[in-house]
Specification:
Elements (H helix, E strand, L loop, with lengths): L16 H10 L29 E5 L2 E4 H8 L10 H27 L6 H13 L5 H17 L2 E11 L6 H19 L4 H8 L16 E5 L6 H7 L11 E3 L2 E12 L4 E9 L4 H16 L5 H8 L11 E5 L7 H7 L12 E2 L3 E10 L5 H12 L3 H17 L6 H8 L8
Antiparallel strand pairs: 1-2, 3-4, 3-6, 5-6, 7-8, 7-10, 9-10
Length: 426
């Protein structure tokens, strides 16, 4: 896949050797090689020498290019989520050619002692500007996974599970025994044996037999996407409430799960509070807070001013009782969550709420919306980065590129035109 420039098009007078090298780089083609499992086209390089999570996608002359190098080359560039798969693959092939030729040019100029020339510096700057295009690792690897995660986070799922653990170094017989045990449990569930009973008796989950703990009798409560292994969440979001999944495996072992309920995810809220600590005269504390609530509702005093004056929470009182932004269903005591269900509008103040810390008034100071895909992108990318599913998609992507770009470096042509005796002399 050359650029279509023939050597007869070179104008006179003859170009110096470094210029010929720059020109030759325009007619080079790129060798795309396997990621894992296969051998490189150059002798002495094998897939075994490459980290499985960083496959080689291209070879040229005596150098190679890894997938992570391409990801870094696109880093901090424009993000374009609208490109289709075909367009992205075409753009990737185009980028391979331009990027490799750019690197060859810089190398040739450096070897010829010309890398300080203003023309070379200008070309380097021009190249770096020209690669500000769609991030293919984003569109081909990360974006589909992040979009799924973002959609799933619009719901929270109440789920229980039963785990039969399988250590990573388990012998084949132990793995088979674990599968037979989970299959027997699955059969019992089909016969109507209560899920919680089987979880209490058989689950290797760390809290299955610890009353009051999350995971007791297998009950994990409401979970949002991105907290558990992909295989678990795939079942969790595909099983209807009230039903049980098939047997599946994660890195922890074999599972079955049951979905109890789904509900819309609650957007984060910003809260303030006034707290009076527990005393022997709890009735007096409640009367004081009721009086303060009346003052706020009647617009005779601001909640913040009263918090600074009366609240006994030394950390938040100086800031008008501000508790910051919290996830209402995950970060608050149950009594706070219950009070929030009756706060419809920003500025509303709760009745007196009791916790183990004391007595509170709670004000809803802001209600945020769930983040858009673009707003959540960076956080969700960090959530999935390095996970097995991402590494698999990287490897699959490299294989797709390899199958679509079947060319190789014409080393003999390079040597002939450059007048060099070996690649090492370039």
């Amino acid at each position: 896949m050359a650029f279509g420039i023939t050597f007869q098009e070179v104008s006179n007078p003859p170009m110096p050797r470094w210029s010929i090298l720059l020109f030759v780089s325009l007619s080079l083609t790129i060798g795309i090689v396997a990621c894992g499992g296969g051998r490189f086209s150059s002798e002495g390089h094998t897939a075994e020498t490459q980290a499985r999570s960083d496959p080689i996608v291209a070879e040229y002359v005596d150098s190679s290019l890894s997938l992570s190098e391409f990801e870094r080359a696109y880093a901090e560039k424009h993000r374009d989520t609208s490109s289709s798969t075909d367009d992205s693959l075409a753009a990737y092939k185009n980028f391979l050619e331009r990027y490799v030729n750019f690197r060859l040019k810089v190398r040739a100029a450096r070897d010829a002692g010309m890398d300080t020339l203003s023309s070379i510096k200008q070309e380097v700057a021009s190249y770096r500007e020209s690669v500000g295009r769609p991030i293919l690792m984003r569109s081909e690897v990360y974006e589909p996974l992040i979009r799924t995660l973002h959609e799933r986070r619009k719901e929270e799922v109440d789920v229980s599970h039963i785990l039969i653990s399988v250590p990573s170094d388990a012998a084949p017989k132990d793995t088979v025994d674990a599968y037979r045990e989970i299959k027997s449990i699955s059969d019992s569930l089909e016969r109507g044996v209560p899920f919680s009973q089987l979880a209490y008796r058989h689950s290797d989950g760390p809290s299955a037999q610890e009353k009051g703990e999350r995971g007791y009798r297998g009950r994990l409560g409401y979970i949002r996407a991105g907290e558990l292994p992909t295989a678990f969440e795939d079942r969790m979001y595909s099983v209807d409430p009230g039903t049980v999944s098939d047997v599946f495996r994660t890195r922890y072992g074999y599972h079955v799960l049951k979905v109890h309920d789904r509900r819309p995810a609650t957007p984060p809220v910003r809260l303030s509070h006034i707290m009076i600590r527990r005393t022997t005269d709890s009735a007096k504390a409640v009367r004081t807070l009721d009086s303060l609530r009346t003052e706020v509702i009647a617009n005779r005093a601001s909640f913040g001013r009263l918090a600074r004056t009366y609240s006994e929470d030394g950390q938040t009182a100086p800031d008008g009782g501000d508790l910051g932004t919290v996830n209402a269903r995950r970060s608050l005591p149950p009594s706070f969550r219950e009070a929030l269900t009756r706060l419809d509008s920003v500025g509303d103040v709760s009745d007196v709420v009791e916790t183990r810390f004391g007595y509170h008034l709670v004000q809803l100071t802001d209600r945020e919306s769930l983040p858009s895909f673009q707003e959540a992108y960076d956080e969700l990318k960090e959530t999935i980065s390095g996970t097995p599913v991402v590494e698999r998609r990287k490897a699959q992507f490299a294989r797709r590129i390899r199958s679509n770009v079947k060319t190789s470096v014409d080393s003999s042509r390079l040597l002939r035109v450059a007048g060099a005796s070996s690649l090492d002399s370039l």
